[in-house]
Amino acid sequence: MNGRSAARLWFDNRFRSASASHSLYCFPFAGGSSAYYADWVPGFTGSVELVPVLLPGRGVRMSEPPATDLGLLADEIAEVIAAEPTEVLLFGHSMGAILAFEVSRRLSGRVRPVRHLFVTGRPAPTIVRPLSPVSDLPRPEFIQMLREYGAAEPAIFEHQDLLDVLMPMMRADFGMIERYRCRPGSPLACPISAWCGDSDPEVPPATMRPWADQTAGEFRLSVLAGGHFFLNENHAEVIRAVHAASRQPRPQLPTRSS
C-alpha cells in the first residue's frame, strides 16, 4: 500500500488543508470513532488541520475486524504518519491518549517527530489501575457499563440491532486497553499537555500528574469542570492550546557533552 492509499485508509481527510503546516491527529476513546471530533472542525483554519484517525471496526471501516493489540496498532499508525509532509501534533482521549502516546514513542528519532502530545481523561501509562476487567462481561452488564461510562449516545441503547454491530468493536477496545502495559523507554522530547475533569471518578488529577515522567520537555496539567467526557463542553480550550503549540519551535533533546 502506498502512502496516499494508507492515508485514505487511516485518516479522515475531509478537513485537510493544502495550506496547513501542522496536522493534529486525533485518536478516539474506547468504543468511539472519528465522528466524535466533528464539533472541533470550526476551530481549525489556517496553519493547523484536523485529522481524525480512522480505526478498524467502526465508521467507514466497520467491515474490518477491530484491533486487539495496541502496540501493533501503534506500529501501523506511526508508519503512516511518518510518511506525511506536515509537522505532527497528536491528541487522544482516554484509550486514545495511550494510543497517541505509543505512536509518539514510535515517531521519536524520525525526520518529523511529534511536536506536542495532548492527552485527556487517562491516567499516566505507568499506572496500572486495579479494576476488574469489563471486556468479557455478560451483555447486560457490559451495556450497563457503557451507559455509566458514557461511551455511546443514549439513543444507541434503544436499538439492539445497532448494538449487535458495535459490540465486538467496543469489547475489543476495552480488552485492548485492559491488556496494555507500558514498557520502559526514554522520555519523549516533545512537551505533553494534559487535562482531566474535576468530577471524573476514574481519572483524578493525581493519576494524570505522572504523565510528566514521560517527557523531557514541558508538562502542563489542567483540571476542568466535568466528568470523564468533560471535553464535550471544554474542547475549545484544547483547540487553543493546539494552536499555541503549533507556533512553538520544534523540541530538541539536550545533547550530552563528551
Characterization of the model:
Belongs to the thioesterase family. Pfam families: Thioesterase. It catalyses: a fatty acyl-CoA + H2O = a fatty acid + CoA + H(+). It is a single chain. This protein is α/β, with parallel strands linked by helices. It has a single domain, classed as Alpha/Beta hydrolase fold, catalytic domain (Rossmann fold). The protein is 33% helix and 14% strand. It is built from seven helices and six strands. Helix 2 packs across helix 3. It is globular, with a radius of gyration of 18 Å. The C terminus is likely disordered.
Task: Spell out the key features of this protein.
14% strand; 258 residues; six-stranded parallel β-sheet; single chain; disordered C terminus; alpha/beta; 6 strands
Count of domains:
1
Strand order of the largest sheet: 2-1-3-4-5-6
- Percent in helix: 25-40%
Q: Estimate what percentage of residues fall within beta strands.
A: 5-15%
Order of helices and strands: HEEHEHEHHEHEH
- CATH class bucket: Alpha Beta
